[in-house]
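On to my pick:
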Amino acid sequence: MRAVLLLVFLFFCTTLSARAEQSSNAENKSSFFGKIGMTIEKMVHKKTDTTYVGLPRQPWRATMRNRISQIDIRFKSDIDLSKEWGEGNTGNIHWQSRMTTPVTYATGLWVGYRSFGLGFQRELGSRKSTHLAFGLSNNHFTTFLRYRESKIVDITGDINASPIDLHQQDRLVSPIKSKVFVADGYYFFNGSRFSYNAAYKQSWIQKKSAGSFVVGAMAYFADFNYAHIENAHIISMMNNIGRLKITQGNLGFGYTYNYVPRKGWLINGLLMPMVTVLNHATLYFYKIDDNAENITRNGKESTHRNIDYNIDGRLSVTRNWENFFINVSGQLNHFYYKDGKTRNHTIDWFTNIALGVRF
């Protein structure tokens, strides 16, 4: 809370200083704050069609942001009984599991000038996960980085092996450790008439409906570690894999549209199919002793997959008034990896709810 108050205090001091400079010095354009303001104004006005997009009259805004987020992880594997449990055992077992990180609720304050600013966000409730994010954008490009570290204790599993068909839910004694880092960047071809910031940062106003083709790149790094004797049953069902690291590089081409049904309203949708041009995984194998009391690492294997396909989708609804705005936005990313008889689907999503004031 102290960090939030300090952030607000510093930005308001800057605002008051700039206004005092304007009122006391007729040549304020040559002042330090005046030069910074002029530089920012030139940057944000560059190559824009003011018939379609424009800046709010008030350059400053303070936003209370609330975020809900979760990662949904799904594993599937096919087990050859003759290989795993020796001769005399025939047939195959199809096993699939679903693990979800705890739903994270966070709230915080963001204060900025035009498209620039600082923010602070704090997670609510028990801290079972760590979430960090950073973004930078203008009307022609946007970049976003996010990192999430979680401990998963709840897992559901299905075992299909005729005539066996089981469904069970477990609460793990030793949690599965999940680390996910995503970095993406996009370029908007029609940045002069289409404003990404109007839909997701509210630093611009979209006056008339407009869309844009968009090209993007995304890097995805994931580390799932469940190598503990308490998770021996999971390791066995995952073809003796106790840890999985995935590195992917994706390139995509899509379309986004800002729809203005009436003055003050803005609805945005973005959809981008992506091609995975880099698809690397490191599999860590473990051996479980006969008494299921200890596990030891039994080597690792690096694999390179062929081209796969992922999806990036975003949606935003904004209501603007003269001095206030409300925004609800969400993003969903789907990542897929397959190696032999082991497959992984990861769905990473979050929803933002923002209430802001311009001044």
Remarks:
- Confidence is low (pLDDT under 50) at residues 1-29.
- The longest helix spans residues 2-24.
- Residues 70 and 103 are 5 Å apart (CA to CA).
